[in-house]
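User: Could you write out the 3D structure of this protein bound to LNDFFVEH? I've included everything you need below.
Assistant: Certainly. Input first, then the structure.
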Amino acid sequence: MDLKPHGLISQSESYSELNGNVLVMVSVEAEREAVLRGLQGNSRFEVRLAGVGMALAAANTAFALAAADNCGLVISAGIAGGFAGQAAIGDIVVATDIVAADLGAESPDGFLPLDELGFGSCRVPVPAALAARAAAALQAAGMPAKAGPVLTVATATGTAETALRHAALVPGAAAEGMEGYGVAAAAQQAGLPAMEVRAVSNAVGPRDKAAWRIKDALNALEQAFAILTEVL
Ligand SMILES: O=C(O)c1cccc(C(=O)CC[C@H]2O[C@@H](n3cnc4c(=O)[nH]cnc43)[C@H](O)[C@@H]2O)c1
């Protein structure tokens, strides 16, 4: 495919029509299977493994894009933690912005994001029309879908303190995962729009793996992609 240099297409441009194929990056095989079930053989979509974490996700997305045929959109998808009051277990979150929540520097006055250090941005905006169209389609189909910022973290949140800190850092933060910013950064480098679609399996907060509802979240992810094929 034709890889465009960084910055040629603004991610905040509105996209009325989507052209080309869709690359979906998920972290693990169970997520890949769920998305594939939802896609029901739709040949416009390709689903690849990103691995866990931002670095592997960026590298694998770049490799997948280099081999992709006529890709017009990249989606980071999978299960996620939901922020209290924003997204409950089983909800779908469509990202309005994809935000690397812990990429920057500490200072005595608090966290300094890349933006304030002058090294680029921690935020990849999702084209507003795309996020709105996806969330509206999911809601119209009766799914509990929310739109809001989705955070990418290197360390999954395991305390109430970190949950509150991240929620304060990014007002309206709806969910957190570990790959979105890496996938979106690779898409941005290729001049392509990025989205993130997450199904909530657990609450962001004190770690309690026994309370994770992975099967429910994977079922929601499957249903979401069955609907998204109609509007993307
Ligand atoms: O054990 C399983 O069967 C299983 C099936 C599917 C996925 C998993 C994962 O553990 C995926 C890890 C993946 O999930 C995202 N995630 C989920 N909850 C959170 C969270 O609270 N904070 C951050 N990330 C979360 C993340 O993107 C991981 O890569 C297991």
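The pocket of LNDFFVEH is lined by residues 27-28, 30-31, 52, 78-81, 153, 156-157, 176-179, 201-202, 204, 214 (CB under 6 Å).
User: Perfect, thank you.
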